[in-house]
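Why do we care about 3D structure at all? Because function follows from shape, and shape follows, mostly, from sequence. That is the central idea of this module. The next example makes it concrete: a single protein chain, its amino acid sequence, and then its structure expressed as tokens.
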Amino acid sequence: MKKISEFIISQTNQFIAMNKPCGMSVQEDQSGDASLHRIAMAYCKHDLYLVHRLDRPVSGIVVFAKNKKAAAHLSAQWKSGEVEKRYLAVVSQENTADAGRLVHFIGEKKGSNRVAVASQAFKDAKIAELSFEKVAESDHYNLLDVQLKTGRRHQIRAQLAAGGMPVKGDVKYGFKRGNRDRSIHLHAWQLTFRHPVSGELITLQADPPDDVVWNAFSDYWKA
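And the structure:
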């Protein structure tokens, strides 16, 4: 496992941003495994505040606030939709459009750890929107650059699957085979938000995991 310092993307007096490995939870859960939150607090030697989350099998940027005031400012940006969120997703070459915009209604699916997706509103559902562009191809897969307009649970996973493009390894949402490490090839690649004190616009970027599938597309994020 990497040293804690190798997870850090950026650090200020107000926040710390880390590149979460796939398979690690952002916060404590019933598994008892070490969470990114716990690891980050051990590194900083003081409490940190959750601002947003990523699903356990997803990798990428997670921001923790270092004080309550910063947490309030950052959380407000996430809730208002002001934060620009870009993800990278690996999908099969079948049924992949060159670009598009997906708008659905998403709600909890009772009795399962999944969400339901529909083109029409249903009880307790919320509107979900994203746009995507196919930016690279490998021998077997396509790479999508996804811009998230809203922030619903499992949104990218569920919406891409509904569009016939499930994320590689995501058997929960229809990909045929899982990855051996139970990860999925979805990565929170870029975040743009305002510094909670100065108001300066900040853009953070984190490289995807080092594996054969991701590495086939590395020219895109290294350009």
